[in-house]
Amino acid sequence: MLTRREFILSAAAMAGTGSALACPAPASSDAEHGVLMLNAACGDPDTPNVFEPAILRINPGDGVTFVPTDAGHNSASKRGMIPEGAAPWNGAIDENLTVEFTVPGIYGHICVPHYEWGMVGLIVVGNDLSNLKSVKKIRHPGSARKVFRALLKDLEAKA
């Protein structure tokens, strides 16, 4: 029996959208986006527990569905890393979660079981970096510190 990840990867390969070594693109349309929750980075088994994409840029009012492509993951907003007035979220382990983003700004999110190991991501709504300073002040344990630092550096470089 195939695992959920193997099924998704093989379906993508059969459809000609990727190979068994590449990740299928998360679902995306004009207003709906997908973020995969994976046990390992696509094509890099030495990078465990990741969100794909790690940084997602969307428009205000867009929705994002977090998909547990591999078992044992969830997505939750990181306290102190969402814009003022935005609603926090905390999805259940192994369940799809769709969140609508209406407040512009940077949103940090984590996989609760793998946060310390660096399973973190960023969503930028409306290309608004106005809460960047407050997002950068948040302290993180373990590998999350290094990964968030790299993501924020990449975000600033592409601003």
Descriptive overview:
This protein is of the alpha/beta class and 159 residues long. The protein has a single domain (24-157), classed as Sandwich (Immunoglobulin-like), CATH 2.60.40. The chain is built from 3 helices and 8 strands. The protein has helices at residues 4-14, 132-137, 142-157, and strands at residues 32-41, 44-52, 55-58, 62-67, 76-77, 97-101, 105-110, 120-125. The strands form 2 sheets. The chain has a 4-stranded mixed β-sheet with strand order 2-1-4-6, with no helix packed on it. It has a 4-stranded mixed β-sheet with strand order 3-8-7-5, with helices on one face.
Name the assembly state: single chain
**CATH architectural name:** Sandwich
Number of domains: 1
Distinct helical segment count? 3
Counted beta strands: 8
Query: Roughly what percent helix?
Result: 10-25%
CATH topology: Immunoglobulin-like
Overall geometry: globular
Note the main sheet. 4 strands, mixed
Integer average pLDDT = 87
CATH superfamily: Cupredoxins -  blue copper proteins
Tell me the radius of gyration: 15 Å
Low-confidence stretches: 1-21
**How much of the residues is beta strand, in percent?**
25-35%
Give the neighbour order of strands across the main sheet: 2-1-4-6
State the distance separating the first and last CA atoms: 44 Å
The CATH C-level name is: Mainly Beta
The secondary-structure class comes to: alpha/beta
In N-to-C order, the SSE pattern is HEEEEEEEEHH
